Amino acid sequence: MEKKKAIQDSLYLKHEKRISVKRLGELLIDWGIIDRIQMKKALEVQKSLARTRKQDEAILFGEILVELGLAKDKDITMALATQYHLPYFPLKSYVINPEAVQMVPGEVAKKHLLIPLDKFDNCLTVAMSNPLNSKAIDEIKALTRCSIQLLISTSSEIKNAISLFYSN
């Protein structure tokens, strides 16, 4: 048990968030959302898509599960929140600060599927659907010159917020 804890404590993302030892598919299996056959099918689709897309285009396993109808957007978000020890943040329950939104151009928000929520001192709170997107985090840090507090929300909630705040 102590060895497993030591392994968990030693794993870090580039932006210093601890990650779970379990992969997304394994978490979803443990929770009864998908089974091993469905996971294998989604992995095959992911490999197939990887051959047809540009090298720098992410082919996210969770998005494939949602597109195949095997999982819901919220299931994927909750599993990612668990995996990366990030708080899940339902956007519909929060009043987004328009001044924070203005700090990040709409093209950047759309490209990385994120929405700035608030700013306090030199810290910008941002909701994302993909907490692994270190390029997005680095780009926002460079644009805003702020430290980033990362929260995770569903893709659909973020898309709704983007369309609301970046409608022009």
Describe the secondary-structure layout.
Layout: H1 2-10, H2 24-30, H3 36-52, H4 61-67, H5 73-84, H6 98-102, H7 106-112, E1 114-120, E2 123-128, H8 134-144, E3 147-152, H9 155-165
Parallel strand pairs: 2-3
Antiparallel strand pairs: 1-2
- SSE order, as H and E? HHHHHHHEEHEH
Query: Major β-sheet, in short?
Result: 3 strands, mixed
**Alpha-carbon Rg, integer:** 17 Å
Strand order of the biggest β-sheet: 1-2-3
What's the number of extended β-strand segments?
Answer: 3
Count of the separate structural domains: 2
The proportion of residues in beta strands is 5-15%
Write down the overall geometry.
globular
Uncertain ranges: 1-18
Query: What gap, in angstroms, lies between the N and C termini?
Result: 53 Å
Overall SS class: mainly alpha
Helix content: 40-55%
Features:
168 residues; three-stranded mixed beta sheet; mainly alpha; GMP Synthetase, Chain A, domain 3; disordered N terminus
Report what the structure shows.
- Helices cover 51% and strands 11% of the residues.
- It is mainly α.
- It folds into two domains: 2-84, no CATH class; 91-165, 2-Layer Sandwich (GMP Synthetase, Chain A, domain 3).
- A three-stranded mixed sheet has the order 1-2-3.
- The longest helix has 17 residues, at 36-52.
- Mean pLDDT is 85; it is low at 1-18.
